[in-house]
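Reading is simple: each integer encodes one residue's backbone shape. An example follows:

___
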Amino acid sequence: MIVYCSFEIQFLKPKSLLMKRHYLYTLLLAALVFLSANLPNVLEKAKIFDINTDPLVPVLPETPYNYDIPFPSHVLFGGWDMVDSSIINNLITPDGATLGRVLFYDKKLSSSNELACATCHKQAFAFADNTKFSIGINETQTTRNSPNLNDLAWQGGSIFFGEPGGNAMLFWDCRENNLDNMVLQPILHQGELGKEMPVLIDKLENTTYYPELFQKAFGTSEITADRIGLALAQFVRSMSVFDSKFDKVMMGQEQFTQQEEAGRMVFESSCGFFCHTSSSFAVQFPLNNGLDSVCSDIGYQQVSGFETDNGKFKTPSLRNLSLTAPYMHDGRFATIEEVIDFYSEGLKPHPNSDISWMAPDPTGFHFTNEQKADLKAFLLTLNSTDLITDVRWSDPFQPLNIAEPLPLGEKITVFPNPFNETTKLELTGDGTYEIRLTNLNGHVLRSFKAKKGTYSIERSGLSPGVYLLEVHKSNRVTTQRVVLQ
């Protein structure tokens, strides 16, 4: 640990070499005495870390995870689907999906090294974003909400639309139907990750881990744009699990409550009558759902060029619906209740509306309050736990933290973050905390005890990069990423 102290001392000019040495020894001795007496106080006031961190590398299991999707029978033969699970699983390999997982979470894929695919598609929200619009490089705001990615592999497994193997009409405006191509577009988009492919390939080739990962996935260490797309698509294709209550009921393992069953009947007589007929609860073609009488975002019309496609958009899967708010292509609805109210009495007249003709009148289905509550109860049975918690889809650059979070009343603040020279940690709760600074592999680099107050973390000894600042109290812990620019 290095502590820098400055002294303002006025020197007398010595008359001989002997006197110079005398003054030098005296000064050195005084400095040592001062430091030995005051070092604890200096360290308490300024927590300065002298750290040599490991490179930012993913932490992966020795044997790659199995990413095969075990499709139950009610999915394989449900609705209008013709899901060929063998084709989909043949497009996924353990090593290919592992490489895709690393790419998905790696911020090297952005021109600023600050964003990744996972920045806008978060596991905790079924790989959607929990904001109306996401933020790309240079603080650029997206023009549409980031939708969930779960179940993309088989949303297009319809006899009418999509490619064999389940590549549906993709993006909100359905401009792409090949998942291998789709995953590359946000990387190249100047408002999202903004990375030029030759620059990205060069960067990946000069890492310690990508050549080996590409070797395992494809048989050689060559890194190409096509291989990046293939690996990312494998990881995204694997994002399907069937542990929801709905699936368990379909497999005879559980039963709906009376309210959930009533909600299912409401759903099938309205939402599921023509639109959400597939087992993914997605719509297999672009629809105008009566959001607006005049559409400022023309949607699929921009792709097809036909006026009859004005205001038509892809409808994402309803699986994990309660996790993917806000809703619609522009994120206008914050809650499921708002969505249900819209379909109940908020439809707008539009010549291309695909919904109004199915409702009792052009303004909506006019659900009773009881029907609204029942419908919500059924929609909640579509939630999966494994998708948002399974390590197979988690961030390989972030070690798993099995400790409980600190109580909500405890405020832990790190500011500024990112920082250049100094950042401060502010603790507001009572009691004693243990502060640990670790690298991304979880190795503890420094630690100290602290109580309520503000503590400084200096740049001294730190290399630019990402660190984990853990704040422990009893058997609880909260972790924040600290970024040094």
Notes: The CA atoms of residues 66 and 94 lie 5 Å apart.
